Amino acid sequence: MPSSLQRDMRNNRVALFDGIEEGGIRASSSYSHEIDEHDNERAMEGLQDRVNLLKRLSGDIHEEVDSHNRMLDQMGNDMDASRGILSGTMDKFKMVFETKSSRRMFTLVASFVVIFLVIYYLTR
Which residues, 6 or more positions from 104, have their beta carbon under 8 angstroms from its beta carbon? Predict the structure, then answer.
């Protein structure tokens, strides 16, 4: 029995200290593989979360850019309309200054001021 007991102790010792080498501990290959696989799965889940976040973020940026483009188009259209109105006003002023009629000029300037004030109070 002593040899059987020695064999059992040796097997227990080998099982207990399996993987210990000089310079540190080396995990058994199956345990190491499981840890690597688990770490890889965790890393993949983290990457998937980041990809989903970036996808949502890029979608939000796209919507914001579209919104700003629509706003800029509307501002461009408004500026074109204002340019047309201003051009017509300048043509009328040129016409007034060419005629040199002070009564007509006064009437025109007064009407512009009244129209401006009415539009100002209506848009407030």
Answer: 96
Angle at 38 between CA 20 and CA 56, to 5 degrees: 150
In tens, the pLDDT along 14-51 reads 554 454 444 444 545 566 667 788 888 888 998 899 99
Q: Is 117 part of a structural domain of the chain?
A: no
Structural domain includes residue 15: no
pLDDT of 86-96, one tens digit each? 888 888 877 76
Structure tokens of 32? Answer: 């190491």
38 contact partners, CB below 8 Å, separation of at least 6: none
Residue 68 has pLDDT above 90, yes or no: yes
The residue with tokens 């001021």 is: 113
Residue 42 belongs to domain spanning: 26-99
Cα–Cα distance for residue pair 37/46, rounded to 1 Å = 14
State how many domains the chain has: 1
Using CA atoms, how far apart are residues 124 and 122, in angstroms rounded to an integer?
A: 6
What does the alpha-carbon distance between residue 85 and residue 36 come to, in Å, rounded to a whole number?
Answer: 73
Please indicate, yes or no, if residue 67 is contained in any of the structural domains: yes
Does the residue 5 lie in any domain?
no
